[in-house]
Specification:
This protein folds into five domains: 73 residues, no CATH class; 137 residues, no CATH class; 72 residues, Beta Barrel (Elongation Factor Tu (Ef-tu), domain 3); 132 residues, no CATH class; 116 residues, Sandwich (Jelly Rolls). The protein is 4% helix and 51% strand. It contains three helices and 50 strands. The chain has an 18-stranded parallel beta sheet that branches. The termini are far apart.
């Protein structure tokens, strides 16, 4: 290139001062320049104060690359290591995504309706970001299309063996042919990176395995689409599933609405280590949200309303939390087959045609601080093989059948605590399970029984007038059984005992004249906060001792009490 090609055209510039340094002359030399031009025709570089910077044309409006003085950019294509591309409603979203596929970046969608007739497919490291759920609309024209993200090269032939704390996996079949270090492998409901494939039957994990020891068990593996996001937009009027992910890792779905679709709203499969927040699925023909083989998913408020199927449907979901509004669906509010080590909390599973929540083959989960009201069958139902489910802090009312239905003897060691029931059609609790611990049914009064729930112990007095020997404070309202034994240690004078309530005699006065204890039980109505007391004395005359035994409250279920003495 000749030197003359690089010589700028200088207009209205004063001559440089000979007394200035070179850097100072440079600043002053260009301060009043109106235009700089290098080259000509399609090889021109121009900058002027009227238009801005432009390349490839003598005219700003015709230049394939131009930036005006307001900072607006036009370019026929952009290629950088990390990019941001804005797509107009008339633009091609998939073309913009494909531009970023090799390097990653962000595709930003403006407000408006994007009319689409094909899938939007998101690769790794690309974020699809709208301008808001109510203003950026992906309208799929009643085609069986939607937003998609899928890994590939899935392989699961053979079985695996591995011990906790090691990173060597053995077993498998033809791994050198079918697996690479780009794959992840699912072991004990978690996906691990593969560091190297050592042989047809041996591979090395990047980190040590932290699950239970495995021997001859099935596995799954795939190259996963990862580190991508869908945010601040709505997917509407797909004839099939609105959003479908399969073999995906570390993804984000935030402030997204999926509505009026012919299938499920959102369908997530073979996923790990991900996040969903403020995702709304409503008025879809199928389920609101489907989760299949999903682990370590964090959710914050899934609104699943008025769907033709189940609000939230899950199979083999583990280590996940759900906070949800699951209402008015044409089936269950939520149904899980194989929910483990997970939490459902702050949810309102109400006004569904069938159960509010239904679990089968599930274990080690918490259902807490939620409402189950006005459902067409049960509020909460454990179908079968549900073990160690803790159900606590619920409001369960006005369900057509049972408030809580533990429906099978194979439902083992479940806990009910702190639940408020009201007006459930078949009753509050149907317990067909094994070793269920039903600690609190707040709306059901205490019933007398033989289960000791508060024990004050043994007491003595040599007093010849009634004196308080023991006291138990109640925290429920209903009927209890008071229980105590009575004897005279010296076997010469009568000993007397009587149950009081709040310092006033309430039970039958008992007396006994020898040193072999006689035991008494009687029912007593109480209100939360009452003090249940045992008073006793010995007849004067010989220095004898009145002794009471095992002063206690007995009921038919565990309740709250406070022993004051």
């Amino acid at each position: 290139m000749s030197v003359s090609q690089w010589k700028p055209i200088i207009k209205k510039e004063e001559a440089p001062s000979s007394t200035k340094k070179q850097t100072e002359r440079g600043f002053g030399y260009y301060s009043n320049t109106k235009q700089v031009k290098v080259g000509s025709g399609t090889s021109v570089y121009r900058v002027n104060v009227e238009d801005g910077l432009f390349l490839g044309s003598e005219q700003f409006d015709n230049a394939p690359f131009r930036v005006n003085m307001a900072g607006q950019l036009w370019a026929t294509s952009v290629n950088t290591l990390q990019q941001e591309i804005t797509v107009e409603t008339t633009g091609n979203i998939q073309t913009a995504i494909n531009t970023l596929a090799s390097t990653g970046g962000m595709v930003k969608l403006k407000s408006g309706t994007y009319v689409l007739t094909d899938d939007i497919t998101i690769p790794s490291n690309v974020k699809l970001i709208g301008n808001g759920q109510t203003v950026t609309l992906l309208y799929f024209s009643l085609q069986d299309k939607g937003v998609r993200a899928s890994g590939g090269s899935a392989y699961s032939v053979g079985t695996v063996t591995i011990s906790n704390g090691t990173n060597i996996v053995s077993g498998g079949s033809n791994w050198t042919t079918n697996l690479t270090s780009s794959h992840r492998i699912r072991l004990d409901n978690f996906w691990y990176e593969i560091y190297a494939v050592s042989s047809a039957t041996t591979l090395v994990l990047t980190t040590n395995y932290t699950g239970m020891d495995l021997s001859g068990v099935t596995y799954d593996s795939a190259v996963m689409t990862q580190n991508f996001a869908v945010e601040d937009l709505s997917v509407i009027y797909s004839a099939g599933t609105g959003i479908y992910f399969n073999y995906v890792y570390y993804w984000f779905m935030n402030r997204v609405t999926v509505a009026y679709c012919g299938g499920a709203g959102v369908d997530i499969n073979n996923s790990t280590s991900s996040h969903m927040a403020w995702v709304n699925t409503f008025d879809n023909t199928g389920n609101g949200d489907d989760f299949n083989q999903v682990d370590h998913l964090e959710t914050q408020t899934l609104w699943s309303l008025r769907n033709g199927g189940i609000g939230v449907y899950g199979v083999n979901v583990s280590d996940t939390n759900f906070t949800s509004i699951l209402g008015r669906n044409n089936d269950d509010g939520a149904y899980f087959d194989g929910l483990t080590d997970s939490v459902i909390y702050a949810s309102d599973c109400s006004n569904n045609t069938s159960e509010g929540l239904e679990l089968v083959n599930s274990s080690d989960c918490f259902i807490v601080s939620s409402e189950f009201q006005n459902n067409g069958t049960d509020g909460v139902k454990l179908v079968s093989d549900c073990d160690r489910i803790t159900i606590s802090g619920l409001s369960v009312k006005n369900n057509t059948n049972w408030g809580i239905n533990i429906a099978s003897s194979t439902d083992d060691n479940n806990i009910l605590a702190g639940i408020a029931f009201l007006d459930n059609g078949s009753g509050d609790v149907n317990d067909q399970g094994t070793n269920t611990r039903n600690d609190t049914q707040i709306s059901t009064p205490w019933l007398p029984g033989t289960l000791t729930v508060a024990y004050s112990g043994n007491h003595n007095t040599t007093g010849t007038a009634y004196v308080k020997l023991g006291e138990i404070q109640t925290y429920r309202t209903g009927t209890i059984t008071t229980y105590f034994g009575l004897s005279n240690l010296n076997n010469s004078r009568d000993a007397y005992g009587r149950v009081y309530k709040n310092g006033v005699a309430a039970g039958t006065e008992r007396s006994h004249g020898d040193n072999t204890a006689e035991y008494y039980a009687e029912n007593l109505g109480v209100t939360s906060g009452d003090l249940i007391q045992l008073y006793g004395y010995i007849v004067d005359g010989g220095g004898d001792t009145c002794k009471t035994y095992d002063f206690s409250i007995r009921v038919n279920s565990i309740i709250d009490n406070k022993i004051n003495s």
